[in-house]
Write a structure and sequence with these properties.
Elements: E1 3-8, H1 12-21, E2 27-33, E3 37-39, H2 44-48, E4 58-60, H3 61-66, E5 72-76, E6 79-83, E7 88-91, E8 95-97, E9 100-103, E10 107-109, H4 118-121, H5 128-147, E11 155-160, H6 164-180, E12 191-196, H7 208-220, E13 224-226, E14 231-234, E15 238-241, E16 246-248, E17 251-254, E18 258-260, H8 262-266, E19 291-293, H9 312-330, E20 344-348, E21 354-358, E22 362-366, H10 367-399
Parallel strand pairs: 1-2, 1-9, 2-5, 9-19, 11-12, 11-17, 12-13
Antiparallel strand pairs: 3-4, 6-7, 7-8, 10-18, 14-15, 15-16, 20-21, 21-22
Helix pairs in contact: 1-9
């Protein structure tokens, strides 16, 4: 009888776990997600700015699972709880048993409750629908500028949080505005981009090379960077800062923090201040050792004890490890502790410009970095497409 592994979450970690588990013919896999699609969140910056379309960052999960020729079952449902003792996953409409479980539910935008009005008056990028709403807002703004030849008042678009997502969104929108100057003219110059963060620098925790080159690129795109700036509250017209200053704004995207998904709150295991699981050294979170957590829903540390940033790379590397750990346990083999570090990072900075590092010593910027980042994304997307095409063909055969 095959071993049954249930994976909760169809994000980067969940899909990578399924791919690795599928290599073992003795494993039956069930993937559960409340959304019917996989969201390529790393491409949100381009989607918001109109560079990408919906098909560039959304993949149908059922078609993808069908590409495994019956090895993977997809359930479109919301998981509400997990019973570790009975080894059951409870969703809104069913109960699924498991031998092993991987929780890969990701994270959501943490609209800090201590900033009054933040959630009500800003958008996030963790949720595809919120990203879509801001894209519509941005395109409507450009359209109004195209129509209106008299309006000259500045329109401020604000990104709260100068981490990876915030920087990429700011750069891409600023680049789009630069491009529209060629067609709409000076009218579009009144659209201003503000990037705000409470930290001393943009991209806190990243290398000096990354920070310096990113800052230079943002300044060349006329992005207004406000660091060491603390937001006190917001209303529909103004952002109020703790130094008693205020900024009139049109729209705001908030990327300044994350919080683990709601499922984490329902499970009685150790968690940190943003509800991420604090796992054992093998990324398991239960006493039996058959429940693993990967990606943004768990606090992941490297061998030095340093917390890894919540990136797609961290999600995928932890998922690969969890899948291999399960296969080792099934085969009664020793499981080594999780040990991973960032292989590299690339930041999209508008148009055909990026900044990146590989293995800690290869440093690139400009068009070369853009090509490398694009290649990495294309390889990932191509793999998804191959699996979906296989699933589509399998479905057509069955229908005939």
């Amino acid at each position: 009888m095959n071993t049954k592994v249930v994976v909760i979450g169809g994000g980067y970690g969940g899909l990578r776990a399924v791919e690795f588990l599928s290599k073992d013919a003795g494993i039956d896999i069930v993937l559960i997600d409340e959304n019917p699609y996989h969201y390529l969140q790393t491409e949100a910056y381009g989607y918001i700015a109109g560079k990408f379309d919906m098909h560039d960052l959304a993949i149908d999960l059922k078609e993808w699972c069908d590409g495994f020729e019956g090895r993977v079952k997809f359930i479109h449902d919301k998981v509400v709880s997990v019973d570790f003792d009975k080894e059951l996953v409870k969703s809104a409409s069913s109960v699924i048993d498991y031998d092993y479980l991987i929780i890969a539910t990701g994270a959501k935008t943490n609209f800090f409750s201590f900033i009054e009005g933040l959630k009500e008056h800003s958008y996030g990028v963790k949720n595809l629908h919120r990203a879509f709403n801001f894209r519509v807002e941005f395109e409507n703004l450009i359209y109004k500028k195209l129509q209106n030849t008299k309006e000259s008042e500045d329109i401020n678009l604000v990104i709260g949080g100068a981490g990876l997502s915030g920087v990429e969104v700011a750069a891409e929108m600023a680049h789009v505005i630069e491009e529209y100057k060629k067609t709409i003219g000076d009218r579009v110059k009144s659209i201003k981009i503000y990037l705000i963060d409470a930290s001393k620098t943009i991209l806190p925790g990243m290398s000096e090379f990354i920070i310096k080159n990113t800052q230079k690129r943002l300044e060349s795109l006329d992005v207004n960077i406000l660091t060491e700036t603390f937001i006190d509250r917001m209303d529909e017209s103004y952002i109020y800062f703790k130094d008693s200053q205020k900024l009139k704004y049109h729209s705001m995207i908030f990327t300044g923090g994350i919080k683990a998904s709601d499922l984490n709150d329902s499970l009685d295991v150790e968690k940190n201040s943003i509800s991420q699981f604090i796992p054992n050294r093998d990324l398991s979170i239960d006493t039996r050792g058959n429940v693993f957590a990967v990606g943004d829903c768990v606090e992941i540390k490297d061998a030095k004890g340093e917390i890894l940033p919540p990136t797609a790379q961290s999600a995928e590397r932890s998922a690969e490890y969890a899948a291999e750990a399960i296969i080792s346990k099934i085969n009664k083999k020793r499981v080594k502790p999780f040990d991973a570090s960032m292989l590299g990072i690339f930041i999209a900075l508008g148009g055909k410009y990026s900044v990146g590092e590989l293995f800690g010593f290869i440093k690139v910027s400009g068009y070369v970095a853009y090509l490398l980042k694009k290649a990495i994304t294309k390889v990932y997307y191509f793999g998804l497409r191959l699996r979906i095409n296989a699933g589509y063909k399998n479905r057509i055969k069955k229908e005939r």
